[in-house]
Every structure is written in structure tokens, then in C-alpha cells.
Amino acid sequence: MHVVVVDPSRTVLMIASQLIGGQGHIVHTFTDPHVALDHLRTHDEVDALITCSEYDGMTGLQLCAEARTAVGAERPLYVILMSSTKERGRRAAALDAGADDFMRKPPEPDEFYARLRAAERVISLQRELMRLANTDPLSGLLNRRALFRRAGEARERAAAGRFLTAVMFDIDHFKRINDTYGHDAGDRAIQVVAHEIKRAFPIAGRLGGEEFVGFMEEATLMETAARGEQLRRTLQDMDIGAGKATINLTISAGVSLFRAGETVDAFLQRADNALYAAKSAGRNRIITETNVVVPDGVARPTRLRQGNRAPSNANVSSDPQTRRPLASG
User: Fold this and answer.
1) What's the mean pLDDT in 287-300?
2) Gyration radius (Cα) of the chain, Å
3) Residue whose C-alpha is closest to residue 164's, from 230, 109, 98, 221
4) What is the pLDDT of residues 125-134, one digit of tens each?
5) Which is nearest to 195 in space by CA: 252, 139, 135, 131?
6) Inside any domain, residue 242
7) Three-state secondary structure call for residue 92
8) What is the mean pLDDT of residues 66-82?
9) Structural domain of 154
């Protein structure tokens, strides 16, 4: 584990560091609770916080509460509060403030090691629960809830002037894969496409069915389209084993660029419109939002809340040659 220890006494920090480091853990020690909080905010690998209740300017109880706020609800952190006092209400106050455990200071080695082992068990369980809560079980990508949370965080960063782009992918003729080769083959196709999308995009998730979304920060619209095109070509050239069958598949995708002030839904709606244009143009291609034409009189049923339509004038950004091993259309 990565353990942060905060105490005004350098002697206590030295003892705690020796005890924790002797068990193979990585230790970070601080005398200033504010510096320790900054470390927690910027180092996601920290698993546990051990602090004391006696401070000038910030109590240990306040540090427990601030630490919980700093890491947020989506990140596990085990908090142990140490105290040299014998106040009966201190244990309850520590637990109410966000601590998971309470122990006397200075710690007895055997008790200290036992509490560290308990922390490891709890952190391991919490991480697994969070993984299950955030991951789509078939594809291994972010599920819809986690994807939109991560997209919201990226949107906040983009509001400060950073680039943010989105690509919405769809497996072409996915129903025919299921109908021709069976649902096991369809599942295998989803897993292979998801694996390649995860390699290509830092934030990637499955919306449902055969639809996926990838986000890129600090990349222009055309840079992201080029990444999508590389992915399209990779998948087009793959032979996917599914039982006794070998499947060849293609994907279509639409790319959009975040605009200041818009919602994630509106941002993704433009990528969805571009994806529809790619499908309408013959599939197996990437189209950016700046090249989208939504056919007059055609209203596409959408899985997202309605956003602004993208500008018109369509041009295809990929190789027009289309490989159709399953069927045409």
C-alpha cells in the first residue's frame, strides 16, 4: 500500500515510517496537514492515511473530514486516527469525522501491523466494488454511468480552455453477426472492438449494445479523427476468431469537438449525428461533425437528450473502399 502519515512529531513519523516500511509498504510522511492534503489530491495511488488528533490550526478530526472530501466518493481511502489522550468520546468523534479506525499513540507494533492488514483487506474490497460499479462486464470498458462521470470531469477541464473531443463508434451490421454466427460471436466482436478502443482512447466506455464512445483531451478534431481512422483500419484488417468461425467486421464513427458552455449530452449528440451520417454514407468510415449532413425529413431516434445539430456539408474522411464479408447494405 501507499500510506500517508501525518504528525507534528518527527519522532512519531520516524517510528511509524519504520514500522510501515518494514512491512513492504511505501510511506509518505508530513508534519503539515495542508501539505498532506495536497499530496492526497494529486496522488491517486495513496491507499491509507494515518494521522493524529493534536495539531495547531487544523485538528486531526478536521483532517479526516478534509481528506474524505479531497479524494471524493470514487476513490478508496482507509483513515486511521491516532491519539495520545484518553478521552472517551474521541473514538466516536473520529469515526463520525470520517476515520475508519482509531488507535492509541505511540502504537504497539503488533497492533499496528494488525490494523494495517485490516486496512489492506478493506481497500482491496473497496477497489473491487468500485471496479464492478464502474465497468461494463462484457467489454471491460467504463459503463454508462462511469463514462458520463468521467466525461463531466473532462468537460470541466475543457471549460478552462483545453481541447476535448469525442468519437462515437458503432459496429457495422452487428445484428447480422449475431444472426449468422450466434450471440457468443457477437460478444466476442464487442470484446475485440472494446479492447482496441481502450488502447486508442484514454477515456473509453460502452453506451450499450454495439455502441462505444472514446474521449481525447488536448487533441484537435482532425487529430482525433485520425486516431479513429487508424482504429477503423486496424479492425477492418483483423480476423476475429469466434468458436469455429472467423469474423471480419468494420466500424463507423462520428467525431465532435467540445464547445464552451455546452452540456456533455449536446457534445455527444453532434458525434451521434456524425455517426449517423457515416452510416448513411455507406458505413466503414469516419466522419467529423464539420462534415455532417442530416438528410432532410429524417429524424433519427436518439439515446441522448436532444442537443444542437452540427453544421452541414458532408465529406467522408476515410477510405471509401468497404469490406463487407457478412453482407452488403
Assistant:
1) 56
2) 26
3) 221
4) 999 999 999 9
5) 139
6) yes
7) helix
8) 89
9) 144-291
Global confidence as pTM: 0.72
Please report which helix (H) or strand (E) contains residue 329, including its range: none
Helix axes 109-134, 10-21, angle to 10 degrees: 70
Other beta carbons within 10 angstroms of residue 106's beta carbon come to: 15
Whole-number Å distance between alpha carbons of 251 and 285: 7
The answer to whether residues 54 and 103 belong to one domain is yes
Q: Which cell goes with 263?
A: 452540456
CATH number at residue 115: 3.40.50.2300
Give residue-wise pLDDT tens across range 210-260: 999 999 999 999 999 999 999 999 999 999 988 788 999 999 999 999 999
Q: Annotated catalytic sites, by residue?
A: 210
Decide the pairing of beta strands 203-208 and 240-242.
unpaired
**Tally of structural domains, the chain:** 2
**Residue whose C-alpha is closest to residue 74's, from 142, 140, 6:** 142
Per DSSP, 139 falls in state T
Residue among 9, 175, 158 at smallest CA distance from 83 = 9
